Amino acid sequence: MLLTVLLLFSVLRPAQAWLPLEDWESGNVTTSGGGLECVCSVFLPDTSFPADRVQHMQQFTNDLRLEVDIQMNKLVHYQSKLESLLGELKELTLRVAMMENEPGSFIKLDFELLRIELREFEALVSQLKDSLNSSSPMLESLYEEIHNMTLIVNQLETYDRSNLEVIRIEFVKLQRKLEECQAEQEIIKPDIGNCNHTGLMSVSKPVVIQINAHLNPSFRYGGWGKDSKPVRGFESMHWYGGYSTPSVYEFYLYSNYDKLVQRSSFTHHGLPQGYEGTGNNYIIHGNTVYYQADKPFRMSKLNLTSAVFSHRQITKASESFSYFYSPKQYLDFSADEKGLWVMYTPEETKGKLVIAKIDEKSFGIEDEWKTNAFKPQAGNAFMVCGVMYATRPGDVKTEEIYYSYNTETGEEKYMSIPLQKFQEEFVNLHYNPTDQRLYMYSGGYYVSYRVRFNYK
Ligand SMILES: *[C@@H]1O[C@H](CO)[C@@H](O)[C@H](O)[C@H]1NC(C)=O
Ligand SMILES: *[C@@H]1O[C@H](CO)[C@@H](O)[C@H](O)[C@H]1NC(C)=O
Ligand SMILES: *[C@@H]1O[C@H](CO)[C@@H](O)[C@H](O)[C@H]1NC(C)=O
Ligand SMILES: *[C@@H]1O[C@H](CO)[C@@H](O)[C@H](O)[C@H]1NC(C)=O
Ligand SMILES: *[C@@H]1O[C@H](CO)[C@@H](O)[C@H](O)[C@H]1NC(C)=O
């Protein structure tokens, strides 16, 4: 029953914290493993049909009419779906009420996410109300139900934590299942490893997974991600490091995404004295951590297979220019379809980023490109298919991917691709070519985005 309810919850959210509304499709997909059937069926009121999706359609089918018909069909089913959702919401309310009777200690932040869910749920219902007739008694009732649940969630903060932990873990796992479900239905299947597109087109809404494994909101510095070139036996390895200062001194490794969500690491690596890092723009690539060592300042790697450290000085790299949100970010590591990169700033370019290709065997720099991205005004940068993308702060809620530099052609472009933020600041942002996602560590939270490419 719990799973049904959570699934419902997931289906209903309009996806601020995970799936973009425009990504939803109707249909069924059975996920393998866990024996959970993931029925992904969602209605899209045509009034909210988003422009970027329309663009897709135009580009790829030239048959908007057909699409509109499909959307209309979905609307027809809408009424009966709402009915069953309402019933399930009632169940959830009951369950939450049961939890109220089991007092205990508990962590505030988990509730924060639940509240976000509810708010977005509310927004979706409100959207539906607008697109249909607001006189529907069912919608009114749904509204009330959400309101009631928000109250209960608020009260629950003083109660038991263990139940919530179970719910939270199931919740996050389902979130990923639904994502997979939805990816199955994407018009364009992700073409992992392929670079025959003309660059980044858009970025999904953020998927906010959870607070860091230390459950500590003051751990604002750190990073998380997935090995971008996993070795045999560690195909889904995820990693995390978090700290309350810019100093980098440990990493946790998880055998897969679910283990990360459960905060159940299989190992932990502390960096011994003299090997600590800083800046937090590290990644794991080929079971090797690439990071910026602090004293002395240099690029370092820790081979997790052999437990061997290696170092290289980039003599030109300056310690004068950091990214906008965080100090000491001098070396920014990145991995993409073309290999391993580090972005740094020499004194001579007066703050503009230089892209350097790292030869993995020798751990030396094999080539370099000067860009026009001014680092102190950039939030961060990352590589995709040999192209560097730089971001800059928009407002509190938005970061903008504003600049790209193609190392193959030397071409630079200015653009405006919004990146919706969960919190204003972030320290680690990188792309992973194995799943075409951006990974961000933002205000102590794990956040990820899916990217879409232009195929012109
Ligand atoms: C979804 O499942 C239902 C019931 O199992 C079935 O009638 C329907 O055809 C399925 N839809 C798709 C798109 O597979
Ligand atoms: C919505 O309400 C308006 C009047 O308030 C009515 O003209 C219209 O037919 C209604 N539409 C639907 C779909 O019920
Ligand atoms: C919401 O709570 C109020 C007061 O507890 C109750 O009277 C009402 O029936 C609830 N609404 C729903 C839809 O459960
Ligand atoms: C890109 O490459 C893949 C595989 O090589 C191919 O299937 C696909 O059609 C190509 N797409 C374009 C737009 O060229
Ligand atoms: C890490 O060490 C293993 C075992 O010695 C070696 O096979 C592998 O090439 C090393 N990886 C890197 C990136 O140096």
Automatic annotation (TrEMBL):
Query: From which residue to which does the signal peptide run?
Result: 1-17
An example of a Gene Ontology BP annotation on this entry?
Answer: signal transduction
User: What start-end ranges are recorded for coiled-coil regions in this protein?
Assistant: 75-131
Q: What is this protein called?
A: Olfactomedin-4-like
The places in or outside the cell where this protein is found are: Secreted
Q: Where is the Olfactomedin-like domain positioned along the sequence?
A: 194-455
**Where on the tree of life does the source sit, at the highest rank?**
Eukaryota
GO CC field: extracellular space
Q: Which Pfam families match?
A: OLF
List UniProt keywords, sorted A-Z. Coiled coil, Secreted, Signal
